[in-house]
Amino acid sequence: EAGVTQFPSHSVIEKGQTVTLRCDPISGHDNLYWYRRVMGKEIKFLLHFVKESKQDESGMPNNRFLAERTGGTYSTLKVQPAELEDSGVYFCASSQDRTGLETQYFGPGTRLLVL
Amino acid sequence: AQSVTQLGSHVSVSEGALVLLRCNYSSSVPPYLFWYVQYPNQGLQLLLKYTSAATLVKGINGFEAEFKKSETSFHLTKPSAHMSDAAEYFCAVSAPGNQFYFGTGTSLTVIP
Predict the structure, then answer these.
(1) Ramachandran assignment for A96, one of left (phi > 0), alpha (psi -120 to 50 degrees), beta (any other)
(2) For B18-37, how does the pLDDT look when each residue is reduced to its tens digit (9 = 90+)?
(3) At residue B85, what are phi and psi to the nearest 5 degrees?
(4) What is the pLDDT of residues A12-29, one digit of tens each?
(5) Please, which residues have CB within 8 angstroms of residue A33's CB and are 6 or more apart in sequence?
(6) What is the DSSP string of A5-56?
């Protein structure tokens, strides 16, 4: 069974540009999460999808970030326009249920550097 | 509210020595606790999890962790470090609704 995949693995962009990150969850997992780790700090929750609906987006930093999950399969996270402080590693995770008991399976992350 | 504190951002041990990575948590509800490991250029991999069953949890690769409610701790241990254990380790607590709260991570170096 394929794990969670993320694309691209690395992205280097200039301030003001737009970047779109993609996450493909494990097949059959209704729950999809985005997290971000700024260098040296903790991994922080961004948002949670249940199928195509946003269950919790309390961690989204500001309105420059837009997440979508059309059709309840893969998800995209767009940053527009990117700022220097958006640099970090963006992780995607998926799980089958929403109780908090279920393990979240993480992808390898996308390393974003904004210059 | 939930939070996790990992003491020691870097830990070094000799090969064959005991590994002890510390994690203290804060939770307003009975917690579910996790340890994840990240090897270079890979995603986070689950080591073990505590979900209110046995307080001593055994995970993969010889790791285990003990839930101590009185100390609000969930420290990760391994009796004998191996070179392949060198990685970054994250402790996490889950909240109702499934959001995870992570610690800042501990980078483990194993010295030959």
Answers:
(1) alpha
(2) 999 999 998 877 788 999 99
(3) -80, -10
(4) 999 999 999 999 999 999
(5) A45, A46, A47, A48, A49, A92, A93, A94, A95, A104, B98, B99, B100
(6) EEE-SEEEE-TT--EEEEEEPPTT--EEEEEEE-TTS-EEEEEEEETTEEEE
Q: What is chain B's length? A: 112
Task: Tell me the C-alpha distance between B16 and B66, whole Å.
Answer: 21
CB contact under 8 A, B44 and A106: yes
Interface of B with A in 7-66 (CB under 8 A): 9, 32, 34, 36, 41-46, 49, 51
Structure tokens belonging to residue B1? 């509210």
> What is the spatial distance between Cα A45 and Cα A104, in angstroms, rounded to a whole number?
12
Tokens of A83: 């700022």
Bridge partners, B100 (sequence order): B94
